[in-house]
Design a protein that fits this description.
Layout lengths: L1 E2 L1 H8 L4 E3 L8 H7 L1 H4 L3 E4 L5 E7 L5 E6 L6 E4 L7 E4 L6 E6 L6 E5 L3 E5 L7 E5 L14 E4 L5 E4 L7 E5 L7 E5 L5 E7 L2 E6 L3 E5 L7 E5 L5 E8 L2 E6 L3 E5 L7 E5 L4 E8 L2 E6 L5 E5 L6 E6 L8 E8 L3 E8 L3 E8 H11 L14 H4 E6 L11 E3 L2 E6 L4 E6 L7 E7 L6 E7 L2 E6 L4 E6 L7 E7 L17 E7 L2 E6 L4 E6 L7 E7 L6 E5 L2 E5 L6 E6 L7 E7 L7 E7 L2 E6 L4 E6 L7 E6 L7 E7 L2 E6 L4 E6 L7 E7 L6 E7 L2 E6 L4 E6 L6
Antiparallel strand pairs: 1-3, 2-27, 3-30, 4-5, 5-6, 6-7, 8-9, 9-10, 10-11, 12-13, 13-14, 14-15, 16-17, 17-18, 18-19, 20-21, 21-22, 22-23, 24-25, 25-26, 26-27, 28-29, 29-30, 31-58, 32-33, 33-34, 34-35, 36-37, 37-38, 38-39, 40-41, 41-42, 42-43, 44-45, 45-46, 46-47, 48-49, 49-50, 50-51, 52-53, ...
């Protein structure tokens, strides 16, 4: 194994920013000199001399498998130490291996061959069974018969083929024993499958992206991007998706693939992306000079890193990202049998990419309380705490809906020093889990995309039992703010025997009767006139905040649940733009507006007619979201600069910012709850749940 830092630096010396989009805080020379060397500090290992590696997947936390095509075709190699060392595993086929499907269990995984054969192992690759050849090769351009196999979160297997008359998708729900041909999805051959937030996308030779949000049963055309073949595809998280084509054009989506923009053209035809995280990704081309490119800002602009530091004519064929609690490892496999390995501390990625992207927002030390000063315990899980949205607590268990994970992470924090993941609740009905609420021992989970409310018995939080699921509302209208209509159900709030469910793309609120908790029923609904996001009740009054693009506080008389009546509305398109969270303390209602970065105080002595008393903003309060109250302090999440503002509300008509928490462990902090003297936080991009002791903050 050799370190290629010197070669990487020589490449960087001739780099220039090839595509620009907006302004960054660092100039091109500074980036080239101080940033890019970290991203070419590869260790390089020749794993398959004379072979080609086009398939590489992570089997478990430490185990990586790769497979070969070409002169050394049909072979599998494995690493038990996250790609540092490799050994030969098996040769289950005489054909090219084009893809690997991991299951999360290193003993059980699948391979796909160039002849559309699916093989399975149940003993870590020691023995293999040919399950089925799904099709003969019907590609007229001499490509392989099939390139993609995927094992979904629900245990379904999906395979694409390259039929030139229309690429088919094959589906198995019994671990590959039997298969259903779903028919032609595209007008031409299909290529790769990619997990994307609330669904799965597929691309191919037709230049069109298709998506499924029902575990691969049905596929819908999203957009035709080009007449050239789409090969490279990568999900960056946080709803961002990249696609690139054979002509070198790169396309970006910031809303899970529903709409796209062309961000530029690079030299050479696309082969693959490798997500690094936090906005950085590698991109390889397989024609022309076969360069590797790097983006540091979610695909808006790209740096040319030159050819691979392996052998002449080599290119990046396929790569993966391996994430741990505190680091990111990239493994890039090449056409000539090499693996390039990079390792990045998450702290480095966080601080460096903030600076490059021009969003470095470090709060002055004198205004901050060190996070570690108050931290009792933390649990991190890359897969199961994946883009958390909220926290609801019950009997020392935290229930965290996770959007990208499409699950509810249940955390046992009865010992706050060592919280543990008790269970990950997964169900096709809770796709894009966005909100949860609890009544007695019943958990209600809201699925934004599916418009579903599912009910679970959580008497034993380690073993929840599903009781029912109902549809609430529909797709609604296209929202210009999101360039889509997928932002449907948003929040569920429970008070007594009623649940209040907001529906963004319909701008409606649904009132559910939960007298029979296991079987909620829709009682009534009404339009808000200005979005529908957060909901909060006090007595017979419902308060609403209508983010996206709502700019108002809406007050509703709910004494008659069948006929709710809007009694007041405070509207301000500037200072209330993006209202998204509410909290009540005594006779005061506190409201935050995400897009206006404001915190409002309302007197609700007359509950049906709130009176605005004040609003405040602060240069360090950026993107305020959720609110939690503790001893005359309001804790406000700021996801834009990864902080929690502590606002003094002892004089509720005139709140003032006191201190902040800010730390990379709070990257995209989105979930918050108070339990006694404990502050509970969950962060989207840090994939964690943290318990803080507020008595240790000095407040």
């Amino acid at each position: 194994m050799m370190n290629m830092r010197k070669i990487g630096l020589s490449i960087i010396g001739t780099c220039w920013l090839m595509i620009t989009y907006g302004q960054t805080a660092m100039d091109s020379l500074s980036i080239a000199n101080s940033v890019l060397p970290h991203f070419t500090n590869w260790s390089v290992q020749e794993v398959v001399p004379g072979g080609r590696i086009d398939a590489i997947r992570q089997l478990d936390e430490h185990t990586i498998a790769l497979a070969t095509r070409g002169a050394q075709k049909g072979k599998l190699y494995i690493s038990d130490d996250q790609g540092q060392h490799w050994r030969f595993l098996a040769k289950p086929t005489e054909n090219d291996i084009t893809c690997i499907a991991e299951t999360g269990d290193k003993q059980a995984f699948y391979i796909l061959t160039s002849q559309a054969e699916v093989y399975r192992t149940l003993d870590g690759g020691q023995s293999w069974k040919l399950l089925k050849q799904l099709t003969t090769n019907k590609n007229t351009e001499n490509y392989a018969a099939a390139y993609a196999i995927m094992y979904t979160a629900h245990g379904t297997l999906l395979v694409t083929d390259t039929n030139s008359d229309g690429g088919h998708i094959y589906r198995s729900t019994d671990k590959g024993d039997t298969w259903t041909d779903l028919g032609a999805v595209s007008k031409n051959a299909l290529y790769r499958l990619e997990k994307v937030g609330n669904g799965i996308v597929v691309n191919g030779w037709d230049g069109t992206v298709y998506k499924s949000i029902d575990d691969g049963m049905t596929w819908n055309r999203l957009e035709k991007l080009t007449d050239a073949a789409l090969f490279a595809t990568e999900y960056l998280g946080m709803a961002r998706l990249l696609q690139a084509d054979q002509d070198g054009y790169i396309y970006r989506s910031s809303n899970l693939g529903y709409t796209w923009e062309k961000s530029g053209q690079l030299d050479g035809a696309a082969d693959d992306f490798v997500n690094i995280g936090y906005g950085a990704a590698y991109y390889g081309t397989y024609t022309s000079e076969k360069n590797v490119y790097l983006t540091l800002n979610y695909g808006r602009s790209w740096w040319n890193l030159g050819a691979l530091p392996t052998v002449e004519g080599d290119w990046l064929d396929h790569g993966i990202r391996v994430e741990t609690t505190d680091s990111v490892i990239t493994l890039s496999a090449t056409n000539k049998g090499f693996v390039l390995r990079s390792s990045f501390a998450k702290d480095f990625l966080h601080h460096t990419l903030q600076q490059v992207q021009g969003v470095q927002e470090e709060i002055a030390a004198k205004h901050k309380i060190p996070l570690q000063q108050a931290t009792l315990g933390m649990v991190s899980h890359v897969k199961e705490i994946n883009e958390p949205e909220d926290i609801v607590i019950h009997n020392k268990f935290a229930y965290i809906p996770c959007r990208d994970g499409n699950n509810v992470a249940i955390i046992d924090y009865r010992n706050p020093d060592t919280p543990v993941l008790a269970h990950s609740l997964r169900d096709q009905d809770i796709l894009d889990a966005f909100s949860v609420a609890i009544k007695d021992h019943y958990l209600y989970v809201l699925s934004m995309t599916n418009c579903r409310i599912s009910t679970y018995d959580i008497s034993d939080p380690y073993h929840p039992v599903k009781l029912s699921a109902i549809t609430v509302g529909g797709e609604g209208s296209f929202l210009e703010h999101y360039q889509s209509n997928y932002t449907r159900l948003r929040k569920i709030w429970i008070d007594g025997d009623y649940a209040y469910v907001t529906h963004s793309s319909e701008s409606k609120v649904y009132i559910l009767d939960i007298h029979n908790p296991a079987k909620p029923a829709i009682l009534s609904s009404f339009h808000t006139g200005d979005g529908a996001f957060a909901a909060l009740t006090k007595g017979n009054v419902l308060y609403l905040a209508g983010y996206g693009p709502g700019s108002s506080l809406i007050t509703v008389d709910i004494r008659d649940k069948h006929n709710p009546v809007i009694t007041d509305r405070v509207y301000d398109p500037v200072l209330l733009r993006g209202t998204c969270a509410l909290a009540i303390d005594g006779n005061h209602l506190f409201v935050v507006a995400y897009n206006a970065s404001t915190f409002w105080s309302f007197d609700i002595s007359d509950p049906l007619h709130p009176k605005a008393r004040s609003h405040i903003s602060d240069t360090d309060m950026q993107g305020p979201g959720r609110i939690a109250i503790w001893k005359k302090k309001a804790f406000v999440l700021n996801s834009s600069n990864h902080s929690v503002a502590i606002i003094d509300i002892s004089k509720p008509d005139n709140p003032s910012v006191a201190r902040y928490f800010q730390d990379p462990l709070l990257r995209r902090v989105y979930g918050i709850a108070i339990d006694g003297d404990m502050l509970l936080l969950a962060s989207r991009e840090a994939n964690n749940f943290i318990v803080l002791d507020l008595k240790n903050t000095g407040m």
